[in-house]
Write a structure and sequence with these properties.
This protein has helices at 6-22, 67-80, 103-107, 121-124, 130-135, 154-168, 172-184, 222-225, 231-242, 251-257, 323-336, and strands at residues 27-34, 37-48, 53-54, 61-62, 201-203, 210-212, 228-229, 262-263, 271-273, 278-282, 285-294, 297-304, 309-315, 359-363, 366-373, 376-381, 391-397, 400-405, 412-417, 423-428, 431-433. The longest helix is centred in the N-terminal third of the chain and has 17 residues, at 6-22. It has 2 domains: 1-343, DD-peptidase/beta-lactamase superfamily (Beta-lactamase); 355-433, Lipocalin, CATH 2.40.128. The protein starts with 5 loop residues before the first helix and ends in an 11-residue tail after the last strand. It has 444 residues and is an alpha+beta fold. β2 (37-48) and β3 (53-54) form a beta hairpin. Strands 3-2-1-13-12-11-10-9-8 form a 9-stranded antiparallel β-sheet, sandwiched between helices. An 8-stranded antiparallel β-sheet has the order 14-15-16-17-18-19-20-21, with no helix packed on it. A two-stranded antiparallel sheet has the order 4-7.
Length: 444
């Protein structure tokens, strides 16, 4: 672990200890990872009240719905392998499914399906296995039209776990262990608790005591909330989601997971949801991650992909929300110990046929500058604000490019040439782009 500034360690420790006291948690563990390295971790309180065993950073806690980030990553892996498409309806991969939202809407909690599985599992504390869940799926309600708005659904992620099984030909748990835990190096994330592991509690509201909580075996719901983990491993998982090993998950897919699919805060517009990742605005900073809740446990993961800082906090108390603590751990770390910006380096020269595309162009009178940066073609309007991204293009064919990020994402850029082969103009998203400013004119 790199040597962490003393002031930062003291501030982070103070945040966690205040949270443990104010929210009356039997214990809490927290950690921060910066620029790929775990730089701070702590644990306060007891993992097991009866035995008095102290919590440590290596104590496992149940992480609840952070499990959904693993399920979503599995779906993205299968998409990248060409085995499914996010626009596929559910019944394309789960034959006979009574509801057929697209995989994208299941991933983004926009399917409209009811929140919990249709078997009243939280009344009986019995969670159906996948086959039984599918046999009774017609009983589940579509409580909103599919795509209408964000509506959190554990049922949706139970169904996505079944998709992983059907498409990969592997049991869900085996897939996640082999394709995610092992290649990412998560040795202390598991589907069942592995010692040392915390025991779950509920703080009594009117006395300084706690109640025991019941353990839940989640059945088909495992892909929505079964996992256990340590703060260190959850931070490493967040770092992977921010900047994945391309042999495990493409960076493009990780960025797609962080793209807003639905707003879930319709009052202030401060939070939303991507593909398996919650999104949170903290001033000018955008955080991604997920929370988790199971009887006796609360969990929180947040990371800033731009600033390469990840924070995780886990507790063995049922109702102690950790969202604001997660935001504060990331913000405090960036404030006290910012990650240095990348150094500019001289790159390879652009291909010969790209050179005529570079420089100043115009869309009517709006200046548009094309550059070759980090071996990619990009464009930026004059007067763009610092925070606004450039458009980035990838070549599709001779004289045809595709916008892969930034303004006009998805649109084509076509190069039109004179008879002598020189560039006459470009056409981007249907608009003419010319070397000189002027009004658009009909061809003569």
């Amino acid at each position: 672990m790199p040597e962490t500034p003393e002031r930062l360690s003291a501030r982070l420790e103070q945040l966690v200890r205040r949270e443990q006291r104010d929210k009356r948690m039997p214990s809490i563990a927290a950690a921060v990872l910066r620029d790929g390295e775990l730089v701070w971790e702590t644990a306060v309180g007891v993992a097991d009240v009866e035995s008095g065993i102290e919590a440590t950073p290596d104590t496992q806690y149940r992480i609840g719905s952070i499990t959904k980030t693993f399920t979503a990553t599995a779906i993205m892996q299968l998409r990248d392998a060409g085995k499914l498409d996010l626009e596929d309806p559910l019944d394309q991969h789960v034959e006979g499914a009574a509801h057929r939202p697209t995989l994208r809407r299941l991933l983004s909690h926009a399917s409209g399906l009811q929140r919990e599985t249709q078997d009243d599992s939280w009344l009986t504390l019995r969670f159906a296995q996948p086959d039984e869940l599918l046999q009774t799926l017609a009983q589940a309600e579509l409580v909103l039209p599919s795509g209408a708005r964000f509506h959190y659904s554990n049922l949706a992620y139970a169904l996505l776990g079944i998709v992983v099984e059907r498409v990969s030909g592997m049991p869900y748990k085996d897939y996640v262990r082999e394709r995610l835990f092992q290649p990412v190096g998560l040795t202390r994330v598991s589907f069942e608790p592995e010692s040392p592991a915390a025991k779950g509690y509920l703080a009594q509201p009117y006395a300084d005591g706690v109640w025991d909580t019941i353990g839940v075996e989640t059945g088909a719901w495992a892909s929505a909330g079964q996992l256990w983990g340590t703060v260190g491993d959850i931070c490493h998982w967040g770092a992977f989601l921010a900047d994945p090993d391309e042999s495990v998950l493409s960076k493009k897919s990780a960025e797609e997971m962080r793209a807003v699919q639905a707003i879930d805060d319709h009052e202030r517009w401060l939070s939303g949801y991507g593909l398996g990742l919650g999104l949170r605005r903290d001033g000018e900073r955008i955080l991604a991650g997920h929370g988790g809740s199971m009887p006796g446990f609360i969990a929180q993961l947040f990371f800033s992909a731009k600033e390469q800082v990840v924070a995780a906090a886990l507790t063995n108390e049922s109702q102690a929300g950790l969202g604001e603590l997660g935001v504060a751990l990331v913000g405090t770390t960036v404030e006290e110990w910012p990650v240095a910006s990348e150094t500019w380096r001289i790159g390879e020269p652009p291909p010969e046929d790209v050179v005529p595309l570079l420089g100043i162009w115009f869309m009517e009178a709006a200046q548009l500058v094309f550059r070759w940066r980090e071996e990619k073609l990009e464009a930026r309007f004059g007067g763009s604000l610092d925070w606004q991204p450039s458009s980035v293009f990838e070549r599709e064919a001779d004289d045809r490019w595709r916008t892969v990020s930034g303004p006009e994402h998805g649109e084509a850029l076509r190069i039109q040439r004179e008879p002598d082969g020189s560039v006459a103009r470009m056409v981007w998203a249907g608009y003419p782009v010319t070397r000189e400013p002027g009004p658009w004119r009909a061809p003569e």
